[in-house]
Amino acid sequence: MNPETEKTLAFYGRMTANLTHEFKNILAIIQESAGLMEDIMAVAPLSKEKYQERFNNSMTTIKNQLQRGMQLATRFNKFAHAPDHASDELDLGETVEHFCTLTERFARLKHISLEADTREIKLTTNPLLLYMALFYSLDSCLSVLPAKSSISMAASENSGKPVIEIECAGKDAPAAPQFFTKLRESSAWKELEDTAAQLGASLECAENDLRFCLFF
Amino acid sequence: MPGKEKKEESIRILLVDDEQEFVTTLSERLQMRGFDAEPALDGEQAIESLNSRIPDVMVLDLRMPGLDGIEVLRRVKKQHPEIEIIILTGHGSDRDEDQARRLGALDYLQKPVGVDTLVQRIKKAYKYKTDAASMDESLSGEEDQKFMDKNTKKK
């Protein structure tokens, strides 16, 4: 297997393992909520009113988790189709937003918040490489930032050209020089540089802020 | 079926999972079955709760923010080896299972799991714990006897 294929498979492996974990959590919550409703009916079929609030809460939980599952499944499906075409027109804002939904758990596990700040911007590019560039951007930030930090990913335009801007913040986050020194030392950053080059995008870091951009 | 279990079967359970709705609902269902179940929402909370209440069985997720399940398992087994630990996770790698078992987890279950299956495994873990405790007692009893015999012979 060549190194590029290995890298792509490793990326897909991490993404799918993360998402199947999320799906299992959703199914487990639905199962327990439905089970609790069943338990209530088994224990007190004649005093349902006494448990009405708990019963209704379980029903709301099930509906919310179904919604969460449907959204994840839709976005996961779109992600799974990323390798279908080597070049495709896509909405950069939507892709960034979907990516953040799919990977929010990676940040959550480190007590870091991840937000997408996007608008519709058309771009023709390699969708798989774009997801990989977003992934390595996130992964490099997560390797440097302490708990309680935040990461914002935004799609915007600069002089009519699409841009992805990644901005980090947090009171315990390192200052810009240390942040970028550590960021550049991370293996994810090296992968990001390679992937940006493959996309034909330029990677630029801010001097005084914890912010870097991918210009297309 | 809830309500059929004896209330006096008060096996103390600590459920550790960062999915709040999952862990509180499961805790409630186990309470309805007569267990003394409490939830903890992360590893730090689980370790802290051991200062006030030692469970018989801990049901532990692996992937959690902050202190993860493997680290909780390591610390609990070091400080309280008598607590039996069942891993209940959505993360299904064989390597994780091997590592968890090597660190002393008694059982390893994949989410989602039926409450009846979980109840069976909790009871099995509790029996394992109480059998091990009584074996320890009987072994120390034998040692006491050997000590007595030895000292009696000396006299």
Report what the structure shows.
- The complex is a heterodimer of chains A (216) and B (155).
- With 216 residues, chain A is an alpha+beta fold.
- Chain A folds into 2 domains: 3-80; 87-215, Histidine kinase-like ATPase, C-terminal domain (Heat Shock Protein 90, 2-Layer Sandwich), CATH 3.30.565.10.
- Chain A has 6 helices and 7 strands.
- Chain A has helices at 3-43, 52-80, 92-108, 127-144, 176-185, 187-199, and strands at 88-91, 113-117, 122-125, 150-158, 161-169, 202-205, 211-215.
- In chain A, the strands form 2 sheets. Chain A has a 5-stranded mixed sheet. In chain A, strands 1-3 form a two-stranded antiparallel sheet.
- In chain A, helix 1 crosses helix 3 (92-108) and helix 2 (52-80) crosses helix 3.
- Chain A is elongated, with a radius of gyration of 21 Å.
- Chain A starts with a helix and ends with a strand.
- The model of chain A has no long low-confidence stretch (mean pLDDT 93).
- Chain B is α/β, with parallel strands linked by helices and 155 residues long.
- Chain B has a single domain (12-128), classed as Rossmann fold.
- Residues 150-155 of chain B have low confidence and may be disordered.
- In chain B, helix 2 runs parallel beside helix 3 (69-79).
- The chains are: A alpha+beta (216), B alpha/beta (155).
Detail the topology: elements first, then pairings.
The complex is a heterodimer of chains A (216) and B (155).
Chain A: H1 3-43, H2 52-80, E1 88-91, H3 92-108, E2 113-117, E3 122-125, H4 127-144, E4 150-158, E5 161-169, H5 176-185, H6 187-199, E6 202-205, E7 211-215
Parallel strand pairs in A: 2-4
Antiparallel strand pairs in A: 1-3, 4-5, 5-7, 6-7
Helix pairs in contact in A: 1-2, 1-3, 2-3, 3-4, 4-5, 4-6
Chain B: E1 12-16, H1 20-32, E2 36-40, H2 43-49, E3 57-60, H3 69-79, E4 84-89, H4 94-102, E5 107-110, H5 115-154
Name the CATH architecture of chain B.
3-Layer(aba) Sandwich
Give the total of beta strands of chain B: 5
Distance between the termini of chain B: 61 Å
Low-pLDDT segments, ≥5 res of chain A: none
Strand order of the largest sheet of chain B: 2-1-3-4-5
**What is the CATH C-level name of chain B?**
Alpha Beta
Structural class of chain A, please? alpha+beta
Shape of chain A: elongated
Spatial order of the strands in the main sheet of chain A? Answer: 2-4-5-7-6
CATH topology of chain B, anyone? Rossmann fold
Largest sheet of chain A: 5 strands, mixed
* Largest sheet geometry of chain B: 5 strands, parallel
Oligomeric status = heterodimer
Question: What is the distance, rounded to the nearest whole angstrom, between the alpha carbons of the first and last residues of chain A?
Answer: 30 Å
Count of extended strands of chain A: 7
- What is the average of the pLDDT values of chain A? 93
